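so my prof wants the structure for this chain in the tokens format not the other one, which i didnt know existed until like an hour ago. anyway here's the sequence
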Amino acid sequence: MKRDEVWQHTIAQRVALREALHELTPDEWERPSLCAGWRVRDTAAHAIASPQMGWTATARALGGAWRGYNTLLFRDGLRRGQAPVAEILRQYDEWAEVPRGPVTVTHVEPLIDAIVHTQDCLRPLGRTVEVPPEAAAVAADRVLLMTFLFGTRGLLSRTRMVATDTDWARGSGPEVRAPMIDLLMMSAGRPGPVPATP
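here's what i got, hopefully its the right format
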């Protein structure tokens, strides 16, 4: 997929999340997301930080890198989630359509953040956002190169994932057949489909 197409999908997911967030009740903002230890508001605040991470903000955030990358993200998400809901929504209004991500990553990582964190926020609330299978496939391929960050090391050697809505299959072992978005979420360490019994 071309770079411009990736950004189009990233922005579409951010905008979809923005629209959904504007509809949430106060109670829904406080509910747990699929990110362990994060509320919906923490995850939403973390997701919209992506286009705001220029060199200065990145350098400031990396000051806590000695604790480990995932710990850094966890603490940053909790900090950002302390902002008032109105401020988080303002950030979405300002930044959701900006084709930019953290300066230390490629153009694909913001797509991962946009898709996966949108699902993290909305699935526990029983809300849905459509994800084009081809966009989820691009994100999944990148996630599978970074399984050490997502806690899914060894997934490809013990599971064969086959998409039911696009031409995509990866891994070996007991087969899991599911829509591409579910395979992406599984690859990113979220609850996923159960492999078929041999």
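also thought this was worth mentioning. The two ends are 35 Å apart (CA to CA).
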